[in-house]
């Protein structure tokens, strides 16, 4: 399929590179492709960024049949534009699509669409250290119909947003509230899919945690409220008594691409990662025994986010004196080094756009 | 607040009353009201039905922060227009809003908005037996922003759809597939809220059940996969050994307004309803002992939907020889009688629009 390109005749003013924040500015163009039952995905096009016209009865607004992805394009010091494992995001699109009964998209074509769009808006990619171009592919159900059933029409859309450095003033470990009241997802549900429902269900817990001075919540499993799942928009890793542990993927947590990369990276450095269930009691017991050496989150937004404190049922524990530890540092430096082109990409993780 | 009215200059052709189906035709007007942080809900207006212009980064499309309701307006044989307990729907809006961190809406104002809109499109209310005007209030988060947090802006919208009779060829009991793989909702999650996430999570199970010849799935609790929750878009009732039982509201099922009305109605007729947890084993044991007299669903769409067959792990049981039972019949006739104005409304459930 050929992607048609219609350029804007009215380019926007670009925002100040030092004040980008996250997800609030959007570039001049977007990618759109339609799906119609019987016809398949068709009419891929890059067009000026503009409001979508959606019928008020449009199914996504009523039944949440929608999925999304998040990845970034980085400008290297040599001026190259790199993507980090974009095929993994497109594979996850299809895993999410299967769960939400949305038709699959060809992985290679999806990556091509991302690249073409990034090329068109290449001038929007910021180059201050730590900045990048956030890429948000998403799919929405568009039938104008109120019955509960999968839609027969969809739109696959990609939008781009220049984003600021996550750590402007150095890496500050976060304070995490262990949630024992609200549940994000449960086995048999939607937890492993990157779908709107999981974020809707997280809002209330997040607001309450913020209120109490915590950055994010750590979710426990929905069945026993015992096993550690993930944090906000990050997977979690622990170093306990020298062993690196991350919760195994059991259907209720998102299989993060940074998680996968962290596991592969550590393995290659001779540091094995154990993927298994780990309970919050075990974490607290390890801390009590002086064996909880590190805790950190992994995700596209921050790459690595060290965790300095947990609060579980009003019991607070501090990890590694509230400082980033050596494993988190090493992973952070390697992944961001590869993304920024400053380190050799021995894994073949990056794809060059330009 | 005053509701401004802008009438369409281009009214649509009305659909054939005998071929309305459900949720596929929409009237000439819609109600919209905006929310902005600091300003509250404002600018309530009735305007011509038209597409919404939504920024592609609009939060509802990414994080599913949205809720909805469903109720009906009925035309009586005397030509009056009645609503059925609309204040209960608006109360449920606020319960859903609280869970989704959406600002509340004044219940009386919400009911007034529904009435005003129905009046403007009164000519759209069909009058063939069993037909009605379906009313869909909904709220969507509209910030053009990709960070995960509650939106600062929202739209409350009401649209109307003339719908056909649910039972055109008499009441036919449905076949229900007991779902033991997928989970709709779990305690601590969103189950009790009427929010898009719960419907997104139901689609795959529903499609698979349809494939195997079943109308809908019966959800079991997400923790033990043991206790009966609800069916598709209906709550469930059983008559076992003379006792009427419906699952108690424990946070994971929708508190249906038809469920509430059924309980109140039966109570007034001297038939108590026990609200308690009931396991699928208990249901099957009751059937084996010849004591499962009736099973039926309750919901706005069909009012009562008798269940003729269950399939749980490939074990099928037939209820009441696949026919509607006396309790389901009585509830159906009373509620539809009150809605259509043919029976006296001893409960004060209806509100007159015109
Ligand atoms: C719920 C959740 N968990 C984990 C992650 C981390 O995934 P990734 O490393 O692919 O960004 C994300 C996404 O960013 C997320 O939304
Ligand atoms: C999941 C679910 N359960 C139950 C019901 C029944 O609720 P009500 O009787 O208020 O229509 C509905 C809605 O119609 C529903 O969507």
Automatic annotation (TrEMBL), chains A, B:
GO terms for molecular function: L-isoleucine-2-oxoglutarate transaminase activity; L-leucine-2-oxoglutarate transaminase activity; L-valine-2-oxoglutarate transaminase activity. The modification N6-(pyridoxal phosphate)lysine is found at residue 194. Its cofactor is pyridoxal 5'-phosphate. CDD domains: BCAT_beta_family (cd01557). Belongs to the class-IV pyridoxal-phosphate-dependent aminotransferase family. It is an enzyme of class 2 (transferase). This is Branched-chain-amino-acid aminotransferase. It catalyses: L-valine + 2-oxoglutarate = 3-methyl-2-oxobutanoate + L-glutamate; L-isoleucine + 2-oxoglutarate = (S)-3-methyl-2-oxopentanoate + L-glutamate; L-leucine + 2-oxoglutarate = 4-methyl-2-oxopentanoate + L-glutamate. Its EC number is 2.6.1.42. InterPro entries: Aminotrans_IV, Aminotrans_IV_CS, Aminotransferase-like, B_amino_transII, BCAT-like_C, BCAT-like_N, BCAT_family. It comes from Ruminiclostridium hungatei (Clostridium hungatei). GO terms for biological process: isoleucine biosynthetic process; L-leucine biosynthetic process; L-valine biosynthetic process. The keyword Transferase applies. Pathway: Amino-acid biosynthesis; L-leucine biosynthesis; L-leucine from 3-methyl-2-oxobutanoate: step 4/4; Amino-acid biosynthesis; L-isoleucine biosynthesis; L-isoleucine from 2-oxobutanoate: step 4/4; Amino-acid biosynthesis; L-valine biosynthesis; L-valine from pyruvate: step 4/4. Keywords: Amino-acid biosynthesis, Aminotransferase, Branched-chain amino acid biosynthesis, Pyridoxal phosphate, Transferase.
């Amino acid at each position: 399929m050929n992607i048609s390109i219609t350029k804007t005749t009215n380019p926007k003013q670009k925002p100040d590179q030092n004040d980008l924040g996250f997800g609030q500015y959007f570039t001049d163009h977007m990618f759109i492709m339609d799906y119609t039952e019987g016809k398949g995905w068709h009419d891929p096009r890059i067009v000026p960024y503009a409001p979508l016209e959606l019928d008020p009865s449009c199914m996504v607004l009523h039944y949440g049949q929608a999925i999304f992805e998040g990845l970034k394009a980085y400008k290297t010091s040599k001026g190259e534009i790199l993507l980090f494992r974009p095929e993994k995001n497109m594979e996850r699109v299809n895993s999410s699509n299967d769960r939400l009964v949305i038709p699959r998209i060809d992985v290679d074509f999806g990556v091509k669409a991302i690249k073409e769009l990034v090329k068109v808006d290449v001038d929007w990619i910021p180059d201050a250290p730590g900045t990048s171009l956030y890429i948000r592919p998403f799919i929405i159900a568009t039938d104008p119909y109120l019955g509960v059933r999968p839609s027969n029409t969809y739109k696959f859309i990609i939008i781009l947003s220049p984003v600021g450095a996550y750590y402007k003033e150095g890496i500050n470990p976060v304070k995490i509230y262990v949630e024992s009241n609200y549940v994000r997802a449960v086995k048999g549900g939607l937890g492993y899919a990157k779908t709107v429902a999981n974020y809707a269900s997280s809002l209330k817990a997040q607001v309450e945690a913020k209120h109490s001075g915590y950055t994010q919540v750590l979710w426990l499993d929905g069945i026993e409220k015992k096993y550690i799942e993930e944090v906000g928009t990050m997977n979690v890793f622990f170093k306990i008594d020298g062993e690196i542990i991350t919760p195994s993927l059991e259907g209720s947590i998102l299989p993060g691409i940074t998680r996968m990369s962290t596991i592969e990276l550590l393995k290659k450095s001779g540091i094995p990662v154990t993927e298994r269930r780990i309970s919050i009691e075990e974490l607290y017991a390890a801390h009590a025994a002086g064996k909880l050496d590190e805790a950190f989150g992994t995700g596209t937004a921050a790459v690595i986010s060290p965790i300095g404190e947990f609060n579980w049922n009003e019991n607070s524990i501090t990890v590694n004196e509230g400082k980033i530890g050596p494993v988190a540092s090493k992973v952070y430096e390697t992944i961001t080094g590869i993304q920024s082109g400053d380190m050799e990409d021995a894994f073949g993780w990056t794809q060059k756009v330009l």
